[in-house]
Amino acid sequence: MIGVVVVLLLTHSVSSIPISDFLPFNGPKVCLFDTVTMLVHKSNVIGSDGVSIYEVTRRDCEEFRLTPNNDGSSPNFSIGFTFPFFARRFRNLYVNTNGVISFIEPVPQFSPDPFPLSDRYLISPYWADVDIRGIGEVFFKESTDPSLLAQANDIIQSATVARGLSRFNPRWMLIATWDNVGYFSTHTDMTNTFQALLVTDGRHSFVVFNYLDDGISWTRGDASQVDAQVGFNFGGDLLRFNVFNTSRTAAIADIEEMSNTGSSGQYVYRVDNAVIRSITITGCDELPILVDPDTPSIINGGVMTLTGPSFNTTSSHEKITCVFTDDDGDVTEGIPRQLFTRPIQGIIVYCKAICPMPLFRKLGPHNLTVMLNDTKFVGQFEVGWPCALEFLHICAVLMQMTYKMHVSSYSTHAE
Ligand SMILES: [Ca+2]
Ligand SMILES: [Ca+2]
User: Structure pTM?
Assistant: First the structure.
């Protein structure tokens, strides 16, 4: 079955994204934000009309452009909506010249630290030493425009990570664009063009990265020891991160030739906590209820975890029984069947139930039932293809992008 699919994938052609497929930027009401004085100039020219960003109305400025700078940042930008980013919900963010959108604090750092980072909350379409003193512009704006939100949702719905969220109806987004930007120090011989979208309905959140067709050329500045890093990082106790696997190597310059949506240069990541159906809640009180990954690959294997208040610390390292079922309620049929029709033994580690995953035989909704003594917990998740791409080696690349899990040990033995 898998061999047949590979042949089909190889016959598709990939479309790459022109600048016209980016969400719009550099519109008629773009104001200039001075990264040194921290003042906004409504005329888009530095002059005497500089005012605090808090004095600017949306009528004055629908969009902002950063003044030419090297390692600067936007102000602490208050957004008109709450953006869920895993276990936290943010109302402020920074757009940083060096290819990062950050929460809590700006990022002047030009050379990327490798994810995971326990104390950072970052979305990085291309964290590297951008320098727009010589060439290039950085724009950002928020939007609640229904047609723009629909355009973003079309991109999101084309990605496997949105399976099970076909009714996702976004209400807010941020559009941040690095247009034709140069690199340190003031170089203009090569430029990069990319865009990050943060899109949410208040409950679910997605990040879209767009890289212009043939639009990523340089990977580091003169002072950097490593190349650009692409991904996101949610620090704290619930550490989540995703890093594009050619990050920090020269091969990151090829990122516009790959995809996880079917359009080369386009990537969609889901960045909210997947809330699952749960039963009684006792112990491990403050944790959100999670099933992770919420869209496992049909050919990926690995482990699935149910995190949540139901699995308290006193049950840590107790054995559990995991049963995977499909949407008809039948035990999932694997290949070969007899390996997957029996319950699988897993284990509790702190507040997580960890279950080795079978190879799934069908796409779509599944349930995971975890039995601990007399208690049952049920989580729902989607099974999808690892990517919607045409080349098997690219799928393999994307499959290496992993979530960090706090797993110290787990059993892989069948009962
Ligand atoms: Ca820089
Ligand atoms: Ca390139």
Answer: 0.68
